[in-house]
Amino acid sequence: MGAAMDPATERPLPPATAGEREMLRGYLDFHRATLALKTEGLSDEELRRCATPPSTLSLLGLVRHMAEVERAWFRRVIDGEDIPLVWSAEGDFQVAYDARTATREEAFAAWRTEVEHARRIEATAGSLDLTVYAERAGQEVSLRMVMLHLIHEYARHNGHADLLREAVDGTVGV
């Protein structure tokens, strides 16, 4: 049986009862879908609209940032891939936020690619207890911690997306 869907938004609802791994997957996918919903129906120009000067924060910048977060934690940390960030070879996470010349197509293509890699890496991991050394964090981290961290990142940035979307066209509550 597939995930229940929120009838108002077509996003998968996280399970109300499930094992830990299924619950974490459900909440992560719910928050991923929420970010995508916050951008629906907007032009590239609207997606690039900044929050409040001097901030460069925009909906498109959030999508780019979350592509970096997915890549960094799942591919670089959990899978140990020696790859740069998507938008910064120097490892500067702030570069992704500056979406002044970005397009929906390039941002979402990168984000979808990283989400699919993350899902594959998580699905093939033997356990949430899988631990690896995260150089940037300076400590061992588990897959469980990474999934919880991503849920936290999405939830926080979805709050930003609420405000950004409302400023663009008045849409609230998605």
Rg measurement, Å: 16 Å
Helix-strand string = EEHHHHEEH
Which range best describes the helical content: under 10%, 10-25%, 25-40%, 40-55%, 55-70% or over 70%?
40-55%
CATH topology: Four Helix Bundle (Hemerythrin (Met), subunit A)
| CATH superfamily heading | dinb family like domain
Backbone shape? globular
Mean pLDDT, nearest integer? 92
- Which regions contain 5 or more consecutive residues with pLDDT less than 50? none
Q: How many runs of DSSP E, i.e. beta strands?
A: 4
Q: What's the story with the biggest beta sheet?
A: 2 strands, antiparallel
Identify the CATH architecture: Up-down Bundle
Number of domains: 1
User: How many angstroms does the end-to-end distance come to?
Assistant: 25 Å
Portion in strands: 5-15%
At the first level of CATH, the class is Mainly Alpha
Brief synopsis:
The protein is mainly alpha-helical. The protein is 53% helix and 7% strand. The chain is globular and about 45 Å long.
Keywords:
174 residues; mainly alpha; Four Helix Bundle (Hemerythrin (Met), subunit A); two-stranded antiparallel sheet; 4 strands
